[in-house]
Amino acid sequence: MWFARISESLLSTLFPTACHECGALVENLANGVACSSCWEKLTTLSPMTGCPRCSYPLDTAFDNRLWLNSCKKCKDLTFSYARAYAYYEGAIKASIIYLKKNPVICNRLHQLICSLLETDPILKGSDLIIPVPLHSERLSERGFNQAEVIASILSRNSTIAVDCQSLQRTISTVRHRAGMDRQDRFSSLRSAFEVTRPRLVAGRKILLVDDLFTTGTTLSVCAERLFAAGAEQVCILTLARVV
Questions:
Q1: 3-class SS at 176?
Q2: Rounded CA gap, 126 and 144, in Å?
Q3: Bridge partners of residue 194, in order along the sequence
Q4: What digits encode the pLDDT tens for the residues 210-222?
Q5: Alpha-carbon gap, residue 135 to 193, rounded angstroms
Q6: Which of 30, 23, 21 has the alpha carbon at shortest distance from 1?
Q7: DSSP code for 134
Q8: Alpha helix stretches (DSSP H) within 125-174
Q9: What is the pTM of this model?
Q10: Which residues contact 117 (CB under 8 A, 6 or more apart)?
């Protein structure tokens, strides 16, 4: 362990990289494309300080007894529970943008997301990980699915198996325009996903994984399809969330 840390620091010295967020030098390869200072400035999300269902930060105290009421950000969304490590900003934003083009997650983010799974009893209780799928055309363009990269890491560090086949994106929808409201986004996505192996989903506690929670529309539609196929529970885990 210590040898690996020294080696990473030495390589960073020999081949310096500028932080994609602030421009300072990245001190260690484990930090990926961001420096330690930017990593330490992240604002984390927690159901203990936000909505107990989706962890969205709240302006006023939320009574945990009102679980079923949720908050205004998730009350119309279909899933059991959702967690993201931090706001979509700084080091984690830079890392996600990098992940869109490179199937690589740095050791620091790797450890953070695995720790989130390990320490959250609801997420840890899942028995199947399903990454949000890309349409075959988009997958061919990019060459990989970043959600599968995350799912693979989570699976290797837990006892939860990954299933990349049971949920498929069958229609390539147009990118959502800024002017579309939530209902328009739901309408454009509802027929885009299909559960192709419902018997492998029925009765299971699913952990649905993606890189980013934006409006929650795509994740909610995927959860709808999984529930329709008989899933007992669908929890969501993403690296970050737009707030």
A1: coil
A2: 24
A3: 168
A4: 999 999 999 999 9
A5: 9
A6: 30
A7: P
A8: 136-142, 146-156
A9: 0.88
A10: 123, 124, 154, 157, 158, 207, 237
